[in-house]
Amino acid sequence: MFESVKDYVLGLLLSLPGIICALSIHEFSHAFVSSKLGDPLPKATGRLTLNPFRHIDPIGFLTLLLLRFGWAKPVVIDPRYYKNKKLGIVLTSLAGPFSNFVAAFVLVLAKLLTYLLWAATYGSLSSFWTTVIEVVYTMIDYSVILNVGLGLFNLIPISPLDGSKVLLSFLPLKAYEKVLKYERYGFCILLLLMFDIPGRLLSIVGVPSSITVWLDMSLYLGVARSAVIGVFENFWMWALSFFGL
User: Fold this and answer.
1) What is the pTM assigned to this prediction?
2) CA distance linking residue 84 with residue 91, whole number of Å
3) How many CB atoms sit inside 10 A of residue 9's CB?
4) Distance spanning both ends of the chain, measured CA to CA
5) Beta carbons of 221 and 148 less than 8 angstroms apart
6) Rounded-to-integer distance, Cα 122 and Cα 152, Å
7) I need a labelling partner for 201 at 20 to 30 A (CA). Which of 37, 76, 216, 223 fits?
8) Mind listing the pLDDT tens digit for each residue in 211-241?
9) Quick one: average pLDDT of 16-26?
10) Given pLDDT bands bounded at 50, 70 and 90, which one contains residue 97?
11) Residue of 177, 155, 170 lying closest to 100 (CA atoms)
């Protein structure tokens, strides 16, 4: 039991930099794109920075660290400053998830460099420096997964996530107004789906798991995450073969 607790705490510590990195990059990208489109609010509210203290919500950070489900402080924007309001909202909304995917790719490159450093110095370094390289490698690996996960999660078309803002921008005006009436319930719906509450309730009344499994949002997120990570792993294998490893 002690070993399992030790491994759990170690996993939390190793994932900490990845969570801070993913949240900060995500929110900064929202602020940056909105600012470039003419919106003065992100800069006025201090969000045009990579400083994590400007972006991290304490409760959302802790839940993300412990439950892998959390949030950051939302960037306040004013679409009235955009020349094309709908396009501006789409670009600003997609900036966060897109930045996480870019960050994940950059981190894969950093992971490759760390691995090459380990391979080049194998057997010549002290155990301390070997351990340092291994820890850095593991932290980068966690960061890749967290950035991909955060990017995909925010593409879900349920308010208040970025995907919902993109979806709303493409709806006709009448449909848009109808959806807005229920937007305030989005977070509750999201929580129910993330913790598979509908599926659990249906299981209680006898609905077979072969049906309820399709209501589990984590299933779809897991498939999407595996697909994206698979692309990075293919690049990883190609890079290793390129270097003759």
Assistant:
1) 0.90
2) 11
3) 10
4) 38
5) no
6) 36
7) 223
8) 878 878 888 888 898 899 888 888 878 877 8
9) 92
10) very high
11) 155
Q: Is 68 helix (H, G, I), strand (E, B) or coil?
A: coil
Q: Are 111 and 141 in contact (CB under 8 A)?
A: yes
Is 27 annotated in the active site?
yes
User: At residue 155, does pLDDT exceed 70?
Assistant: yes
Residue 177: Cβ-neighbour burial (10 angstroms; 0-12, 13-18, 19+): exposed
Both tokens of residue 160?
Answer: 């208040």
- Long-range CB contacts (within 8 A, 24+) of 231-238: 232/104, 232/105, 232/108, 232/144, 232/148, 235/108, 236/108, 236/111, 236/112
User: Which of 3, 27, 183, 233 does the annotation list as catalytic?
Assistant: 27
Nearest 5°: the CA angle 39, 70, 36 is 15
CA 80, CA 224: separation in Å to the nearest integer?
34
User: Which residue in 227, 99, 94 sits closest to 165, CA to CA?
Assistant: 94
Torsion of CA 219, 225, 227, 232, to 10 degrees: -160
pLDDT of residue 2: 46
DSSP designation for 72: B
Residue 143 CA to its chain's centroid (Å): 10
DSSP helix/strand/coil, 238: helix
d(CA 167, CA 116): 42
Average pLDDT (188-193) is 83
Take residue 121 and report the two structure tokens written for it. Answer: 């110095």
* Closest of 12, 153, 13 to residue 70, by C-alpha: 153
Q: Give the SS3 label for residue 35.
A: helix
